[in-house]
Design goal:
five-stranded mixed sheet, 7 helices, globular
Length: 265
């Protein structure tokens, strides 16, 4: 996959000069998990997203977490590396504002990029800092992986650059959530043509199987938006109902945030 050209966007870590590299010791995995890890490594190598590396200064472990339907997700624990990086303060849109501006539209299209984060290259100087260890070898990312501190900010910066002429008019973007909105079907066709032109211009690829084109309603940033307005998503209600009682200030703030979001409706 070609992906975004480095002159348009690349992910830079900007590690603090005084930070001391940390090499995590390899974790032990059950043989079943080792096979899951190796399958994921093979996919990433075949796609050209990672490469083998030797003698890295930074080294992180992989983590295998359960997904729905008995499947597994392989992640990298970049806690140490993230602690050594400054926060990218690029602004994210206010969710309430873009959800409000999306509701009441006659026609919507929800777009999903194909391995969106992996379409953005890593800065060559920072590739080996993303090194991780598996039972079968050492690898680093050639593209921006999930789990890095400022990956969301880098993605939002790229989306803002790509869709700048359309944001607030016919497009709303929150990191990797993209919606095209129009009052009429005729307008929507024109708006989609504008979006596709920009996607081709910047070599951003979509995942058609996860896109929804020309619908009257859909889920956007956790809310159900339609021409009628905004409705609470059943997933949001379920998340609140299943939240255990808060045990500390941080958990209380998280629960309060969920309740405030529902209270808007």
């Amino acid at each position: 996959m070609k992906g975004i050209h480095p002159s348009i966007a690349s992910h830079k870590l900007n590690v603090f000069p005084a930070a001391r590299p940390i090499r995590q010791k390899i974790r032990r995995f059950h043989p079943d998990r080792q096979r899951v890890i190796q399958d994921e490594i093979n996919k990433l190598l075949e796609a050209g997203f990672i490469r083998e590396v030797s003698y890295p200064d930074w080294l992180a472990n992989v983590v295998v977490v359960p997904k729905k339907e008995g499947k597994w997700r392989v992640c990298v624990d970049y806690t140490n590396l993230n602690n050594a990086c400054p926060k990218d303060s690029f602004p994210l849109p206010r969710i309430d504002q873009i959800v409000d501006s999306t509701s009441g539209q006659g026609m919507l299209s929800f777009l999903d990029a194909f391995s969106g984060y992996h379409q953005i290259p890593m800065s060559p100087d920072d590739e080996e800092k993303t090194a991780f260890i598996t039972p079968h070898g050492l690898y680093c990312y050639k593209v921006m992986p999930f789990g890095l501190k400022n990956a969301g900010a880098t993605y939002q910066r790229l989306m803002t650059k790509i869709f700048k002429p359309l944001i607030g008019r016919s497009v709303e973007v929150y990191i990797d959530d993209i919606v095209v909105k129009s009052k009429t079907r005729e307008q929507h066709i024109l708006h989609l043509q504008e979006v596709f032109y920009l996607l081709r211009k910047y070599d951003m690829k979509l995942n058609p199987s996860k896109c929804a084109f020309g619908v009257s309603a859909g889920k956007f940033l956790g809310f159900m938006v339609s021409q009628r307005g905004i409705e609470v998503s059943p997933d949001q209600v379920k998340a609140v109902m299943e939240t255990p009682p808060p045990r500390n200030k941080k958990e209380l703030q998280r629960l309060t945030g969920k309740l405030v979001a529902l209270g808007r409706l």
